[in-house]
Amino acid sequence: MSKQKKLLLAWLLLVQSITFAQYSLITLSGLVRDKSSKTNLPYVNVLLKTSKDSIFITGTITNDKGRFSFPNIQPGKYLLEFSYSGYSTILQPVFIGNLSPYLDLAAIELEPVRLLLGEVVVTGKQEGVAARMDKKTFTLDNNITQGGGSVLQAMQNLPGVTVQEGKVQLRGSDKVAVLVDGKQTALTGFDNQASLDNIPASAIERIEIINNPSAKYDANGNAGIINIIFRKNKKEGFNGRAGIALGLGALWEKQENLPGIRPQFQGTPKVNPSLALNNRKKNINTFFQGDLFYNPTLNKNEFVTRTYENGDTILQQTKRNRETTISTVKAGMDWTINNNNQLSFSGLFSSEKIIDNGDEPFYNKDLTELKRLWQFLEDEVKTTVTAATAYQHKFSQPGHLLNIGLNYTFHREDEKYFFTNQMPDYTGYDAFKLLSDEHVTDFSLDYTRPLKHGRLETGIKYRWRNIPTEMIFYPGLNSPIDSTAGGWAVYKEHIPALYGNYVFENDRYELEAGLRMEYVSVNYDVDPNHNTYKSDGYSYTKPFPNLRLAYKFNERNKLSFFFNRRVDRPAELDIRVFPKYDDAEIIKVGNPALQPQYTNTYELGYKTGWSGGSLYSALYHKASEGTITRIGSIQPGSTIIYNIMQNAGKSRATGVEMLLSGDVSKSFSFNLNLNLYRNQIDSFTVENLYPSPNTFSAPTSRINSGNIKLNAFIHLPKQLDLQLTAIYLAPDIIPQGRIDGRFTLDAGIKKQIQKGKGELYLNATDLFNTMVIRKEIKGDGFSYTSSDYYETQVIRLGYHFKF
Question: Could you tell me if 588 and 680 lie in one domain?
Answer without folding.
Answer: yes
